[in-house]
Amino acid sequence: MTSPAKFKKDKEIIAEYDTQVKEIRTQLTEQMKCLDQQCELRVQLLQDLQDFFRKKAEIEMDYSRNLEKLAERFLAKTRSTKDQQFKKDQNVLSPVNCWNLLLNQVKRESRDHTTLSDIYLNNIIPRFVQVSEDSGRLFKKSKEVGQQLQDDLMKVLNELYSVMKTYHMYNADSISAQSKLKEAEKQEEKQIGKSVKQEDRQTPRSPDSSSNVRIEEKHVRRSSVKKIEKMKEKRQAKYTENKLKAIKARNEYLLALEATNASVFKYYIHDLSDLIDQCCDLGYHASLNRALRTFLSAELNLEQSKHEGLDAIENAVENLDATSDKQRLMEMYNNVFCPPMKFEFQPHMGDMASQLCAQQPVQSELVQRCQQLQSRLSTLKIENEEVKKTMEATLQTIQDIVTVEDFDVSDCFQYSNSMESVKSTVSETFMSKPSIAKRRANQQETEQFYFTVRGNGS
C-alpha cells in the first residue's frame, strides 16, 4: 500500500519561491557589476594603448632625429670643397655608390620613422580616444536598457507571486468548502440512517395514543432532515462557487507561470546576449580592429619602404666589381695611367745609324750575347711559371678568406615562445675574439707571403 502523498504547505511554497527570486535578483545585480567591470577594463585597456603609442611615437621621433644627425654628419663631409671633387670623380665607383645608397637609406629611414610617429600621434591615438568615448557613452545607455529589462523581469516575478498567492487562497477556500460539504453529507446520511432504524424498531401497542406520538416524532425527524438538506445545498453552492474560483485562479497561475518562464528565458537567452552584443559591444571590436589595422598598415609600409631601400643597396652590393672599377678609374685618370711615349733614338753629333751593326768583330759578340739572353729568358720563363702558380694559389687563398660567406646572422633573430633571442655559441659566431684573431693572423700571413713572392717575382 502506497503512502499518501505529502503536500507542501503555503509557507514552504512561498519560502521556496522567495529563495528562487532572491537568487535571480542576486544574479541580476552581479550581471550589472560584471558589465561595469568589463567597461572599466576596456577603458583601462584603451588608456594603456594610448600611453603605449604615445611613448612609442616619442621613441620613433628620437630615433628619426638620431638617424638624421648620423646621415648629416657624413653627408656634410661630402659637401666640402675637397670632398666634392672626390665625389665627382668617384661617384661612378661601386664602393662609393654603396656608401651613397647607405646614407640615402638612413635619410629615408629617418623620414619614415618621422611619418610613423606622426601616424601614432595624429591617427592611431585619436582612434583609441574615440573608441573609449563611444564605449563609455554606449555602456551608459546599455546599463539603462539593462536596468529597465531587469525591472520588467522583476515586475513579472512579482505578478507571478501575486497570482500564486491568489490561487493558493481560492484553492484553500475550495478545499475548506469541500470539507464542509462532506461533513454535511455525512450528517445527512447519519440522520437518514437514524430515522430508518427508529421506524423499523417501533411496533404498534395502543390504537390511538401511540399513533399520535409516532406521527409527532416522524414530523420532527423530517424537519431535521430538511434542515440538513438545506445546509447541504448551501454548502454545495458554496463549494461549487469556490471550486470555480479556484479553477480560474489556477488557470491564471498556470498562464502567468508560463509567461514568467518565457520572460526569464527571453531575458537570459536573448535580451542579455543582445544587450552585450548590440549595446555594450556595439562597434567596439570593429573600431579597435580598424585602429590596430592602421598600426599594421603603417608598420608594414615602413617595412616595405625599408626593403625597397635595402634592395637598392643589395643591388649595389651585387654590382661591386673590382675589374669594372679599375677600368673606370683608369679611364677617369687617363692622363695618369696611360703609357708614356716611346723613347726615340737621339743621334749624337750627326750619327744617323739607328740599327744594330753586325760587322766583324762585333758580329760574334752579338751572337754570343743573343745566346746568353735566350738562355736567361728560358730560365726566367720557368721561374716565372713557378712564381705565377704560387701567386695564383696564394691569391686564391686570400680571396677565399675575404669572400667567405659569414654574413648570415638570421640565427640571432630566431625567437622562442618566451620571446627571448636565441643566441648562438660565442665560439661559433663570426665576431668571437678567438675566431677573429685566428682569421686575421692567417690572412695577414698569407698576404705577406703573396707580396713577398710577387716582389721576388718582379
TrEMBL record:
<protein>
    <recommendedName>
        <fullName>F-BAR domain-containing protein</fullName>
    </recommendedName>
</protein>
<dbReference type="InterPro" id="IPR031160">
    <property type="entry name" value="F_BAR_dom"/>
</dbReference>
<dbReference type="InterPro" id="IPR027267">
    <property type="entry name" value="AH/BAR_dom_sf"/>
</dbReference>
<feature type="coiled-coil region">
    <location>
        <begin position="363"/>
        <end position="397"/>
    </location>
</feature>
<dbReference type="InterPro" id="IPR001060">
    <property type="entry name" value="FCH_dom"/>
</dbReference>
<feature type="compositionally biased region" description="Basic and acidic residues">
    <location>
        <begin position="181"/>
        <end position="203"/>
    </location>
</feature>
<dbReference type="InterPro" id="IPR051627">
    <property type="entry name" value="SLIT-ROBO_RhoGAP"/>
</dbReference>
<feature type="domain" description="F-BAR">
    <location>
        <begin position="19"/>
        <end position="325"/>
    </location>
</feature>
<feature type="compositionally biased region" description="Polar residues">
    <location>
        <begin position="204"/>
        <end position="213"/>
    </location>
</feature>
<keyword id="KW-0175">Coiled coil</keyword>
<dbReference type="Pfam" id="PF00611">
    <property type="entry name" value="FCH"/>
</dbReference>
<feature type="region of interest" description="Disordered">
    <location>
        <begin position="181"/>
        <end position="219"/>
    </location>
</feature>
